[in-house]
Amino acid sequence: MVRQKAQSDLAVASHCQIDPAVSASLVRFLVALGTSMPELATTLVAVFRGNDEVGVGTLLGSNVFNGLFVVGIAAVVTPIPIAGPTLWIALVATVIAVAAVWPGKTQILGRGRGVLLIVIYALMMALLAVFAS
């Protein structure tokens, strides 16, 4: 199954004259972006209406559900191979992101930490594109 997927990814990438590593990273990014759009829209509407806690709860709840329940169910159905670099890059990025969103004394997630989270994501994706291919 994994071999068939890899072969089809390579066929599409070579047909489009795209480096397979770039193709896989782009697909991952687009899937992540597409599946997060409903949560992003809900969060933006909630924040603009003054319901900040709804926005944060939506994002965190969705990500916790996807990260634990959905991946857990998928792993029960069929084992998910995880390459060493992929696992360590994701774990380090997660620890840094949790530290960045920790409320602290101010109980506010400001613009600076928001930018930091975006930078962490971009760096994680770049590292995955380089080391996990």
Describe this structure in words.
- With 133 residues, this protein is an all-alpha fold.
- The chain folds into 2 domains: 1-81, no CATH class; 82-133.
- The chain is built from 5 helices and no strands.
- The chain starts with a helix and ends with a helix.
- The mean pLDDT is 79.
* N-to-C CA distance: 18 Å
Low-confidence stretches: none
Overall domain count: 2
The proportion of residues in beta strands is under 5%
Q: Shape from CA axes? A: globular
Q: Helix content range of the residues, please?
A: over 70%
Order of helices and strands: HHHHH
Oligomer: single chain
Nearest-integer average pLDDT: 79
- Count the DSSP helices: 5
**Content-based structural category:** mainly alpha
Number of strands: 0
Summarize this structure briefly:
With 133 residues, this protein is mainly α. It has helices at residues 2-15, 20-48, 52-77, 84-101, 111-131.
